[in-house]
Write a structure and sequence with these properties.
The chain is α/β, with parallel strands linked by helices. It has eight helices and ten strands. It has an eight-stranded parallel β-barrel with strand order 1-2-3-4-7-8-9-10, surrounded by four helices. A two-stranded antiparallel ribbon has the order 5-6. Helix 2 (53-63) packs parallel to helix 3 (81-95) and helix 4 (122-141) packs parallel to helix 5 (178-187). The longest helix is centred in the last third of the chain and has 21 residues, at 205-225. The N and C termini lie close together (10 Å).
Length: 300
């Protein structure tokens, strides 16, 4: 199965001071897609510039022609399905049908309390996610939706004319637990993982590969329970959170080795962070661009 290469561009640059140029360069380099994080702020970047995901993607849509665009990932932490659906339909229209929604249950980062709420427990996040995704699916495929849930309500929510992509724009569902994997199997056109976070600090690359193999096996079981072929789902690995860290980006050969091992597991798309100086994503831009233009040819 062929492997696609994509990038994620964190929204840390003013649009007219380098932001637009990165998205345009991503298209020039031939990346399949360019994503951005959908957070209000994030980790070590909290005290620096950080712009909104959907306005950034809208600007990127007008600055590019072929590049797919998306979030990695949107979550219920500060989003509501009704307003999110309206913005996504607008973005899909502006981009000419180039949007993929990466979506996950969220975590305990800064987004979890920015609106004044207490952080949700893992169960509460799973409960909300389990209601959020099906309602969003309806909002993006039906002209008018009314639904009263435990967490989210829509009352005659109108979303005409709907998405350019039919029946709706694709969902890339980030999940590793059983409930999330079931949502990916039922509603996803793709599945997203960052690996096993417990292995990041002290695990080995070999242990990471086995953990990812286990995740894909569990995804297969979830698909089987919904009478779906797991091969129908794209499988996306967001690089940078496995024990390999940035070593695969040190050279084309190192990346080809990393990519080959994960392609054999069944991954169809690898997403690399665009280099950011003085951060966890501080890699050599020239090598990064060389990987973008040469690595896939070596994989065959």
């Amino acid at each position: 199965m062929s492997l696609r290469l994509s990038t994620v561009i964190l929204p840390v640059d003013r649009w007219h001071e380098g932001g637009r140029a990165k998205w345009q360069r991503a298209e020039e380099l031939g990346f399949h897609a360019a994503y951005t994080y959908d957070h209000l702020s994030w980790r070590s970047f909290r005290d620096g510039p950080w712009f909104g995901a959907l306005p950034t993607l809208t600007a990127a849509a007008t600055a590019t022609d072929r590049l797919r665009l998306g979030t990695l990932v949107t979550s219920p932490n500060f989003r509501h399905p009704v307003t999110l659906a309206k913005e996504l339909i607008s973005l899909d229209d502006i981009s000419g049908g180039r949007v993929t929604l990466g979506i996950g249950a969220g975590g305990n980062g800064f987004d979890a309390t920015a609106l004044g709420q207490d952080p949700w427990t893992p169960k509460e996040r799973a409960d909300r996610f389990g209601e959020f995704v099906p309602l969003l699916d309806r909002l993006l495929t039906e002209g008018a939706v009314s639904q009263k849930g435990d967490f989210y309500t829509a009352e005659e929510a109108r979303n005409l004319p709907g998405c350019v992509q039919r029946p709706r724009l694709p969902f890339a569902v980030a999940a590793t637990g059983p409930r999330g994997l079931k949502l990916a199997a039922r509603y996803g056109q793709a599945w997203v993982t960052t690996g096993d976070p417990k292995l990041y600090e002290e695990g080995t690359p070999e242990q990471s590969v086995e953990a990812l193999r286990g995740q894909i096996e569990r995804l297969g079981k979830a698909c089987a329970e919904t009478d779906r072929d797991v091969a129908d789902l794209d499988k996306i690995l967001l690089h940078g959170f496995t024990p390999d860290r940035n070593r695969p980006l040190e050279s084309v050969d190192a990346f080809v080795d990393f990519a080959g091992r994960h392609q054999e597991l069944g991954f169809t798309e690898l997403v690399l962070h665009w280099p950011i100086a003085d951060s966890d994503f501080a890699t050599d831009l020239a090598v990064f661009e060389e990987i973008a233009t040469e690595a896939l040819d070596q994989l065959g």
